[in-house]
Design goal:
Strand content: 5-15%
Number of helices: 8
Helix content: 25-40%
Low-confidence stretches: 1-24
Shape: globular
Bound molecules: 2-acetamido-2-deoxy-beta-D-glucopyranose
Radius of gyration: 22 Å
Distance between the termini: 67 Å
Strand order of the largest sheet: 4-3-6-7
Mean pLDDT: 90
Structural class: alpha+beta
Number of strands: 7
Length: 361
């Protein structure tokens, strides 16, 4: 009997060692690697606290074949790098909070499980983006991300949920913008499908968490220069923490000065005065004398330019704009910011919904 038991034990050890080995050396470049998005329910209902696949492998996936890159490889590398940040935001939330963190504050008792589910769909995005990069290009790995909510004590739940709304709205905006860079029709449609999923995440929070009108008027904000939005997520990356095999993110990167607005002066709502601040004193635009500068506001398909007082860095959010969804503001040296190069700083997100969050970002 004892012999039999040890035999079973040995067999079990050998089997698990073999499976472990098979799983870790399996070819991550192969899209048939399980679980497969939209086939497996894994990307909806994995409930573990540990990172789900493919985020449980954080190293970049190196090219497995030589040859020219796929036509949209760079776009998907940018997306995958952005997704590591977005996924990590949810993963850190899942590890930091538990069901009672939210229920305690009177939030719906399924808030934590919804966040788990969103975390899983973000892991699914990651797998979709990995699969969309050809085997001739590197698939970026994870950096270390700091979203700030873990260090702010009691306010952290609110801060976390506010950032959730901002992250989803900005994901919608960059997905819509990236369509302009896509070569393959499949890529264009995939970007719309991804943006729609982010919208569902955002809508859930507006209805269940913030209990406000979930709609943002007839059209969400279209911002033409998607890489500038991606670049603004670099503020969450711990400096020097990215794997050296990762490409520059985003590519190409302008490294524009980032701006915030002085929330003691403005709520960022239409008609209100706005005073910009540069986030990094080392990275500010050079203003020339006798040149006109503008604060350019994007909302839906509307683009409205307002003169910028470069001494006070002040302007006015156009009163014509509907107080819904998001207004994106940049500083430009041409009316309407007609080219990527005409943008000198930004973008800044002025979140109009939920109203309570105005001016926080
Ligand atoms: C891994 O999968 C990719 C994509 O299917 C393929 O091109 C490559 O040859 C595979 N590598 C190995 C070692 O099987
Ligand atoms: C996940 O969903 C699948 C199919 O809908 C179901 O079979 C499985 O039991 C679910 N798992 C959990 C943990 O809810
Ligand atoms: C990652 O998760 C997948 C799916 O659960 C699992 O098959 C794989 O062994 C895990 N890999 C690592 C390195 O933990
Ligand atoms: C949630 O976390 C708190 C603080 O760490 C702990 O006191 C509580 O028991 C946890 N609740 C659940 C349901 O795990
Ligand atoms: C969660 O809330 C719903 C609606 O308020 C209630 O019906 C349900 O019993 C609650 N579940 C738990 C586990 O507390
Ligand atoms: C995209 O689809 C349109 C309409 O079917 C077609 O005319 C066009 O050639 C396609 N473009 C590419 C790059 O495949």
């Amino acid at each position: 009997m004892r012999v039999l038991r040890s035999l079973i034990f040995i067999v079990a050890v050998v089997v698990s060692a073999t499976t472990g080995n098979v799983l870790t050396t399996r070819n991550l470049s192969d899209p048939n690697h399980d679980p497969i998005p939209s086939e497996s329910s894994y990307y909806s209902n994995y409930t573990g606290r540990m990172p789900p696949f493919p985020a449980n492998v954080t190293a970049p996936i190196l090219p497995t074949v030589k040859g020219p890159p796929g036509p949209d490889d760079r776009l998907f590398q940018n997306l995958l790098a952005a997704e590591w940040a977005i996924f990590s935001f949810y993963q850190q939330g899942v590890e930091f909070f538990n069901a009672s963190s939210f229920a305690m504050l009177g939030l719906p008792n399924n808030t934590y499980s919804r966040l788990l589910e969103i975390r899983d769909t973000e892991a699914g995005h990651m797998r979709i983006f990995q699969d969309s990069i050809s085997s001739a290009s590197v698939k970026p790995g994870s950096c270390i991300y700091d979203f700030g909510f873990q260090s702010s004590g009691r306010a952290s739940v609110t801060e976390y949920l506010a950032l959730q709304t901002l992250i989803e709205v900005s994901s919608m905006a960059f997905a819509a913008g990236l369509v302009r860079q896509a070569v393959a029709n499949e890529t264009k449609s995939a970007l719309v499908g991804i943006g729609e999923t982010e919208t569902r995440h955002g809508i859930w929070a507006l209805i269940e968490i913030w209990k406000v009108d979930p709609f943002a008027g007839p059209i969400d904000t279209v911002y033409p220069y998607a890489n500038q939005i991606l670049d603004s997520t670099n503020r969450f990356i711990v400096s020097g923490s990215c794997p050296s095999a990762n490409p520059v993110y985003p590519s190409p990167r302008q490294n524009l000065p980032q701006i915030s607005s002085d929330s003691t002066i403005s709520a960022g709502t239409p008609g209100s005065k706005i005073v910009f601040k540069f986030v990094d004193p080392e990275n500010v635009p050079m203003f020339r004398k006798n040149q006109d500068y503008y604060a350019v506001f994007f909302h839906g398909l509307e683009i409205i330019s307002v003169p910028l007082d470069i001494k006070k860095l002040s302007s006015v959010v156009p009163k014509e704009l509907e107080e819904k969804g998001i207004i994106i503001a940049v500083i430009a040296d041409e009316k309407g910011a007609p080219t990527e190069e005409s943008v000198l700083a930004g973008p800044l997100f002025l979140l109009q919904q939920p109203g309570a969050l105005q001016g926080q970002f």
